[in-house]
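Archive transcription. Copying these from loose printouts into the bound notebook so they stop getting lost. Printout 1 of 2:
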Amino acid sequence: MRTPAPLCSFAFLVASVAPVAAGGTISVPKQHATIQAAIDAAVDGDVIVVSKGTYEQNLLFDNKTNVTLKAKKKHKVIVDGQENDDAITVYQSSGIVIDDLIVQWGDWFGIKIDESSDVEVTNCTVRWSGGDGIHVESSNDVRILDNKVHECAWGGDPVRLESTTNSLVEGNKLSGDGAGVVLDSSDGTAVHKNDIEWCQNGIEVAGEGNLIAKNDIRAIVDRGIVVDDTAVGTTVRDNKIEACGEQGIFVESNGTTVNANEVESTGDDGIRIEADSCTVTDNTVKKPIDDGYRIEGSFTTVTGNKAIQAGNDGFTITSTNNTLTDNLSTKNRSNGFQVEDENNVFTNNKATKNGFFDLFDNTNPGGNTYSGNTWKTEKVP
């Protein structure tokens, strides 16, 4: 098993960049008629500056080091892949920067980064790709920053990382048929401050030691954030999730931390935990169609959360050996706390103004422990 990358605050949000050797400036089309000719001619430290226009080319960085490709004027350079191949491919290269291009009509991927390191894609618009907008595989220290990716065809994901480590996906505006961001067997990566809408799922996580933080996710067909059962050591915090067809946050991996998220108007549960030994703290769930929180794993700590106006129960506990402390459940259509299994501990929780009971314990007498809780109506064995 791979060792998870450490999560030290936001220390790994900024990848270290090796010093770039001093190079020259290559102008397109002044010095080279095509962008590919400029890439082929570039050496360590060169900056390729492209004048405005549409360039119908499929670009390849192959074994290049410390080369920057950028537009001379913002939003004035279009790289059109003509559906012949990926519009831009970075292969076995390092220190590559792709800045401020419009990339369109990639046959499968708009931009593909493969077996490379220290690559940055920034301020680009990627559209109309046949599959994923930005696709990264078998790479490390990749930064995808402040891009707009939309209209990916055939269920393509706006951003997808496969078998990639220590990377950053930040500040992007993403929409498309697939998931906004997919981490597939990718470790030690931060998905941070992205704006994601109109996707199948918002963010899908499979890999170790990843951080999902401060994203704005809305108008999602299925789930806002999905934490796969292989996603060991995932932290999901400070995200805003609204209007999902199913759950806002869905967790299948043991030991996941879900902290300080705001979830509203989901078509199913607000937050569902189907894993053990998770930590669920200081979240707020409003107006889900079903339960605010559904805890189906054991040995999970649920502290300081709020469930407000759920279509069913505020908190539903279907498993054993969980600890619930200082949670608020109010104005839910059914019960404040619905308890379906034993050996759970409830301390200093508050439930009020719920449709049926503030507490409904459907287990055996003495099956659960209650101390210091505040509720007016209860049904206990």
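Printout 2 of 2:
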Amino acid sequence: MSRHHVAAETVAAAPVDAVWARVADITTWSTWGQWDETTRERDGLPAPDGVGALRRFRRGRKSHVEEVVVFEPTTRLAYEVRSGLPVLRELSSNPLWQPGEYGGAAAGSESSALIEILRARLGHEAVYSLQVVQAHRPERAWAMCEPSLAGASVPPTRGPGVAAPWGAFRRPLWLLPMPQQLEEIDGVPRRRGTLRFFGDVERIETGWWDGGEIGRDYYTVFDIYGVQLWIFRERADPHRWFLHGVFG
């Protein structure tokens, strides 16, 4: 059975004990996470959220069950999925703290102050946000914009619609400036060793109308170190393989 190891790290201004109490208690996750319902199906040790605790996450009609395997208060929490598949998070999340709680500010106020400080130190052009653009070619599917406009819509480059033509986390947030050709052995791509394919292929054939035609089959793969990569194979001869992005 294959395993995927995922580590998450973030920074919060609240006291460590307060953060741990919120994260360790599964019954609170539906109030600040992207879940419709979160329940504890079995207590663990130490009770109730310690090692052995079974936790169910539900969003819509999809759910999965996790078992806590490491419980080190204020230091480390780890779990393994026991049934179902983890539901992909949305591209946004709710705040962990409400305004006024542990110094939490009104939405946007802290970000605006931080942007002003960074621009004063680094220069106005050095600080910007990224915005999804409605284009099928990955290298043309984003644009730089003012941080204050990051949540606004950007006119499509071609055709109607208001949403990006791919699902959340179907494509990586980090694309290489230029696709990097991969080593091959008997037509099989390699990067720092063998690659393990995961999920379905995404075929992109577009750009014939403007001279920038591409034909590619994209795949999500994991390398031997567990790094999730986005690669593609040319549909035209000589059918080379390229690395195009890295999932965060």
